[in-house]
Design brief:
single chain, about 70 residues, alpha+beta, 2 helices, 3 strands, about 25% helix, globular
């Protein structure tokens, strides 16, 4: 490493009530939403994290809600 980056282990999970994807690790927690009205709206990251969850067999957003 060049001293300009750090390794951070994170966990990612879907809150099935809100539809938000949570990201936690290293003392931080944040969320990503696919709702354009949300401050946490980030469709590209939401799609990518949804795929990570789906590929791991974890609860994930429906593909239709991600690709919309």
């Amino acid at each position: 490493m060049d001293g300009k980056s750090v390794k951070l282990e994170i966990r990612v999970w879907l809150n099935q009530k809100t539809g938000h994807i949570h990201i936690g690790g290293g003392g931080l927690i944040s969320t990503v939403s696919n709702d354009p009205a949300s401050r946490r709206y980030h469709p590209n990251l939401y799609r990518k994290l949804g795929n990570v969850l789906r590929d791991a067999g974890a609860p994930a957003p429906l593909r239709e809600s991600v690709d919309a």
